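Dear support,

I submitted the protein below through the web form. The confirmation email said the job was done, but the results page showed an empty box. After a refresh the structure appeared. I'm attaching both so you can tell me whether what I see now is the final result or a partial one.
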Amino acid sequence: MSLKSSSNVAVNTHELILEISAEDFNKAIVNAYKKEKNQIQLKGFRKGKAPMSIIEKYYGEEVFFDTAINDILPAEMTAALEETKLDIVDRPQVEVVSASKADGVVLKAVCTTRPEVNVPEYKGLKAPKVVDAVTDEVINEQIEATRKRQARIITVEDRAAQMDDEVTIDFEGFKDGVAFDGGKGEDFPLTLGSGQFIPGFEDQIVGHKTGEDFEIEVTFPEDYQMEELAGQKTTFKISLKEIKTQELPEFDDELVKDVSEFETVDEYKADLKKKLEESAQQKADAQFENYLFEEIIKNLEGEIPECMYDQRIDREVAEFEARLAQNQMSLDLYFQYTGMDLDDLKATYRDRAVSEVKLRLALESIVAKENITVEDSEVEEGLAKIAENNHLSVEEVKRFINVEDYKMDLCVSKAADIIKESAVVDNSLAEKKEEETAE
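What the results page shows now:
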């Protein structure tokens, strides 16, 4: 095969004209015959014994053309791409322009190439970094959560039901005096205030005691899924059978010893405050980084092939399907449960895929601008960490990871560091963003 021409026919699109000589094509046809003859049976010949000339006479001279072209094309296409130095991002679309034993084959390959993008500004960007204050109120909320995790459930006999109680009820719903389907339950556990039932239902149980039978009136929401009940006033007959509540332990030194490695409340609080402050700082750092990256994406210049987004979405779907499989669920079953289809699922990943592709291209552009490189020692150190975390040897990791791609990952990380380290904190932007979000 020889490359006859290479031309840029559109943005991110190259057209290659390739030729296969008559000699090479005829050799490929003979090989195709040898590969496929055992599947061909003609009258008068045992299966696989019909001569090539007879098969061509019966089915036409072109009978082995497709197989011959497909056999010879991959290696030659690779050679053509190496010769042109094209960096393609999708499988070339190949069209047979002409093919004959006498003249060989002429092919046209349309290649989608990696886009050239530009990041006009990436140093000195402004972004907010607001670190949430760790107040006594925040600390007490965490302590209250700890108490609730250690709470024991007790049955209430001496008071009426309150919000946050867990009650056991029998209930039946009526519309215009007639019981409706799906409106009945027995020995139903319900945490008051959980929002498990329609608005107004749980509120009206508050104030009633164990053993009481009573009625409540509620109006179903206008957008309720059962059309016959949407917006309708109904009556529920309720029998309150049991009330339970959480009994929280005192937060004292004894509880601290039970739930932590500390001996006193003061030690526990000091450690809790330190961890909350670290978490607040990490959250602020992450938001700072996300804001900067959003600015980079927003200002990115260049046209990006749609196929790059599609490939990223397909990868996300494949990873999601793998996670489902770990939980013994198939993608088809997931679609049955959710009412979604593959297009719906892909649509949920669209915005994220666009952002990820744009950011990666932007960072790779910065790598080139800054002439960022990595030392072999950095690569080996990184691979060693991956090996350690996955209980593998470095050689095993190299069999799963493309080392050149990993080098670029390290370079991209350095490009991201340049953006973050040169950025300027401007907390007035946080208020502006909140206003825009509210609008």
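Response: this is the final, complete result; the empty box was a page-load delay. The CA atoms of residues 254 and 263 lie 8 Å apart.
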